[in-house]
Design goal:
Blueprint: E1 4-7, E2 12-15, H1 22-25, H2 35-38, H3 41-58, H4 64-74, E3 79-82, H5 87-98, E4 104-108, H6 115-128, E5 133-135, H7 139-149, H8 158-177, E6 182-184, E7 201-204, E8 209-212, H9 220-229
Parallel strand pairs: 3-4, 3-6, 4-5, 6-8
Antiparallel strand pairs: 1-2, 7-8
């Protein structure tokens, strides 16, 4: 890809901003001896952060189709979109698949998904003639978790719930993103106060990749309108009051007037409702506990 350089110490490929001169021009290897080995991890991260900021500045003028196309055009290497088959994810999947963009689509099959989630998973594959890669938790880790907690031990404490999320979601996500240059998610800023602190495009310092939230400035109503207008399959639970859908034991329908994510881990009194997958722009992480060996 023209204008791209391998940032080997970060582990990804990114298109460099023009202000980096000869590197961005992709000059001949003889003119740039040992370029890859000469770029430090810190410099590589700085370049990726600059590119993320540039893309974020462009997003307000772009529609969703243009946003995903720009991400694919500007970032070399693997671009991965993780879907839980929620409303936002279905909108993004439609755009990526209908444009036949080279974006890998993967899901975290936690072993505790709703039957309706499996239904929309199958409907999506039929509609677009594709396969969504499934990443399941390590069997031994799940067995050990259940041995410690029991079947629904995640309800005993926030720490226990985060440990469950670590085994079933965070560890598989690490495998999904290994070696990727960019990660696309369905986060919207108005989903929660915590998510309002995220950026549309940013450099994820911990995972060393560019994180993209293409629906960051969308509302739920706009997302639903888009899905309906394009006849995109969506989870039947959305019509039954489930606005945010995760694992079946940890998700319930909302009562009138409740915030969008109130149905997730509803027995917890904490306002912050995250599982450890997402890091805010300032580096704050709702981190799940590391799974036991």
């Amino acid at each position: 890809m023209a204008g791209a350089v391998s940032l080997s110490k970060v582990g990804h490929l990114t298109t460099l901003p023009a202000q980096y001169g000869d590197l961005a021009d992709g000059g001949a290897a003889s003119d740039r001896p040992d370029t890859e080995s000469a770029i430090s991890a810190d410099v590589a991260a700085h370049l990726a952060a600059d590119l993320a900021a540039e893309l974020a500045a462009q997003f307000p003028a772009l529609d969703l189709f243009e946003r995903l196309a720009a991400i694919r055009a500007r970032i070399a290497g693997r671009v991965v979109f993780t879907t839980s088959f929620g409303l936002e994810d279905q909108a993004i999947a439609h755009v990526a698949l209908s444009q036949q963009l080279a974006i890998e689509i993967a899901t975290l099959d936690t072993g505790r998904l709703f039957p309706e989630t499996h239904d929309v998973w199958a409907a999506t594959e039929r509609r677009y003639g594709t396969r969504v890669a499934a990443f399941a938790p390590d069997h031994a880790s799940v067995k050990a978790l259940i041995g410690r907690q029991g079947s629904d031990g995640m309800r005993f404490s926030i720490a226990a719930r985060l440990e469950c999320c670590a085994v079933r979601k965070v560890a598989p996500l690490a495998r999904v993103l290994d070696g990727s240059a960019a990660w696309i998610t369905g986060i919207r800023a108005d989903q929660s106060a915590e998510r309002a602190g995220f950026l549309p495009v940013s450099f994820d310092q911990q995972r060393r990749l560019i994180k993209v939230n293409p629906l960051f400035d969308w509302t739920r109503a706009a997302t639903l309108d888009f899905v309906r207008a394009h006849n995109v399959p969506y989870n039947a639970l959305h019509d039954r009051g489930f606005l945010s859908i995760g694992c079946a034991p940890c998700t319930r329908a909302l009562a009138p007037g409740e915030p969008e994510r109130a149905g997730r881990w509803w027995w917890e009194q904490e306002e912050k409702k995250e599982c450890g997958l997402h890091i805010a722009a300032d580096g704050r992480l709702s981190r799940a506990a590391s799974p036991h060996a």
